[in-house]
Structure formats: structure tokens, C-alpha cells
Amino acid sequence: MNKYIFASSNQNKLLEISKQLSGITLLSLLDVGYYDEIIESGSTLTENALIKSNTIYNKYSLPTIADDTGLEVYKLDGRPGVFSARYSGEQANASENIKKVLHEMKEVTDRRARFKTVICLKNNFQELFFEGTVEGLIANEKSGDAGFGYDPIFIPNGCQKTFGEMSLDEKNKISHRSRAIQKLVDYLSI
Ligand code: IMP
User: Ligand 1 in contact with 16 (CB < 6 A)?
Assistant: First the structure.
């Protein structure tokens, strides 16, 4: 009965959360045969996490976990934020998005930024949200090819390297996502 669906087709996210959620059976969208794109039309991470979990819960009636994440750069007024996935255009890939952030940060000396993840748990009687953040700096250039998305340009506080230069375990020790998932793990007592 301990079955949950993870409402994301992002295999990197699934990989990152699997170990922490080993106390439940976590089904991916591939496992349940869901191949459509979920349109993230919300104006906040919370709204988008809810849209994803509602879409999947309404179709499969199984408890659903969704993740919406954004990179918030202080001197860019919190951008790309909720637009992180499509920052340089609707079909943008990670390297195009990174290029745009680095370009906008070219002359900027205050390079503070943070990652924020909102996890939504939706089941038959409630919707709950769990948030995790990690503070850091935007690097001057890309480094490392581990991880995904903006990882190669984000240096977490207290570290000398980007998430892109870290192993999965290293990133998971301090990441926004692992912090949010830990709150879910505590709530579920698993
Ligand atoms: P979403 O949560 O799938 O909508 O992701 C928003 C954007 O942020 C995408 O471009 C992702 O690649 C990026 N992103 C999400 N999580 C991470 C992360 O842990 N590290 C780096 N980039 C991420």
C-alpha cells in the first residue's frame, strides 16, 4: 500500500530522491505510462508543484509527490525563479539557460543566489508542501558536468566547487531538494 507516484519525467530528480525515499515504493511517470507534458502555468513554485501533483493524482488516484524547483539570483530580482526551465525560451536547454544567466551576471559582483525546491504531497485527503533551500553563489563560468540544469554554475556556501563538480552523494548532503525531501520523509516517518 506504500505506493507513491513521482510526478516528474526528470530522471535526474528521480535519481536524487530515490535513496532518501527508499522506505516507500516510488513509481515514475514511465512506470505508470504517463508520457504527456504537464503545463506548468503557475506563477509560483508552489502552484506548479500543485499542478503537477493534481494532474497525476486525478488520473491514477495514488498518492503523488511533485517537485518544482527554481534558481533565484538576488541581483536579478529572484530570476529565473519560476521561469528556470524556460529562461532563455520555451524550448531552451540547460546550456542556453546557463548562458543567459552568466551573460546577465557578467558585470555583477554580488553573485548571491539560492536554489529553492517545493515538494507537494497529494493524497486522498490533503495537499501538503515541503520546502528546501540552499544558498550559494553564481560562478563566473561553468564547471563540471555532473548533475543537471544550473548545477555547473552554482557554488553552495561553504564549498569550493559547483554542484556540477560534485558526486550525487555530495550534492544530496546539502541540496535544496534533499532538504525538502527530508521534511517529507520526517512527515511520513519512513
Ligand atoms: P523544474 O522544477 O523541473 O520545473 O525545473 C526548473 C528548472 O530548474 C529546469 O531548467 C531544471 O533543469 C532546473 N533545475 C531543477 N532542479 C535543479 C537542480 O537541482 N540543480 C540545477 N538545476 C535544477
Answer: no
